[in-house]
Design brief:
The protein has 3 domains: 2-65, no CATH class; 72-182, no CATH class; 217-271, no CATH class. 30% of the residues lie in helices and 23% in strands. The protein has helices at residues 25-35, 45-57, 81-95, 147-163, 201-214, 218-225, 266-271, and strands spanning 2-7, 16-22, 61-65, 72-78, 105-106, 120-127, 130-138, 172-174, 180-182, 242-246, 252-253, 260-265. Strands 4-7-6-5 form a 4-stranded antiparallel sheet. Strands 1-2-3 form a 3-stranded antiparallel sheet. β6 and β7 form a beta hairpin.
Length: 276
């Protein structure tokens, strides 16, 4: 999917028009859903279905976004390192691989949804140890801030939320005497401070894929290949304590039919890693 930003003339805040171009049926369908391109009022289900088939059959779709009230801006930035640190810590705990900086990597294609309702992601990558992004966001002038400043602030927050945990705002607060008082922050729309935490499985999977290709020892690769769960329920690294592997001398009756297995704790798995 391509996204092209075209700066508009006559403005001093660098606002522009965003052209989103879908080049595959999957991309076109995602655009139709995100921008509601077949939801015209008064149309029947049959009419909408025929329009959907017509758009997808065309093979390529371009949709332009431009607004005077909520102008669009190109936002470039990096995710704060504090929100990335938990991912490096988990990589080290499981594999024994300690990285002082993130490896260069393209992440655009593994990002789960580039057409967010709050912003559009054009590119996501790692360079010089930082997670970098190029997004398109829109906003209006509000609270004494320009539309451009608000758009940048919103996108900065949204991108941080992709990597961190946002606590819920409780409706009630416990008092010391066992009673509860209504939380004045509840339902105000104010954002809670983000907590650094591994929440983006897609990013963690990308780091583990890089590690397996570049740093894993043959012994560690053999254990990954012999993982009995095989990612059936979650990624192989997502178990808190370790991984189950086939072992004829193992103490675990795996399937009740004679197959044996053993549990490899992450401490043992990490010890098999090379000194990196």
């Amino acid at each position: 999917m391509k996204m092209i930003f075209n700066e508009l003339e006559g403005f001093d805040d660098f606002r522009g028009r965003v052209d989103v171009i879908g080049e595959t049926p999957a991309e076109v369908l995602a655009m139709i859903k995100r921008f509601r391109l077949v939801d015209a009022a008064g149309e029947s289900e049959v009419d909408r279905a025929l329009k959907l088939v017509e758009i997808v059959s065309a093979g390529e779709l371009t949709h332009s976004l431009q607004s005077d009230k909520l102008p669009w801006f190109e936002i470039n930035g990096t995710v704060e390192n504090e929100f990335v640190a938990p991912y490096l810590e988990k990589l080290k705990r499981i594999t024994g691989c300690e990285l002082s900086v993130l490896p260069d990597m393209e992440l655009t294609d593994v990002f789960p949804d580039r057409l967010k309702h709050t912003y559009l992601l054009n590119r996501l990558w790692i360079e010089f140890g930082s997670v970098c992004y190029q997004c398109f966001g829109n906003a209006e002038k509000w609270n004494g801030k320009s539309a451009a400043v608000n758009a940048e602030n919103y996108v900065t927050r949204y991108m941080a939320e992709e990597f961190a945990h946002e606590p819920l705002t409780p409706e009630f607060i416990a008092n010391r005497n066992g009673t509860y008082s209504r939380n004045p922050e509840y339902a105000t729309g104010r954002k809670q401070k983000l907590v650094p935490q591994v929440t983006a499985d897609w990013f963690m999977s990308a780091l583990f894929a890089w590690w397996e290709a570049e740093k894993a020892t043959p012994e560690q690769k053999a254990i990954i290949a012999g993982n009995l769960l095989g990612g059936k329920y979650s990624p192989w690294w997502n178990d808190y304590q370790g991984v189950y592997v086939a072992d004829d001398a193992g103490p675990i009756d795996w399937d009740g039919n004679g197959a044996k297995a053993r549990h490899v704790k992450w401490e043992e798995f990490a010890a098999l890693g090379a000194a990196v």
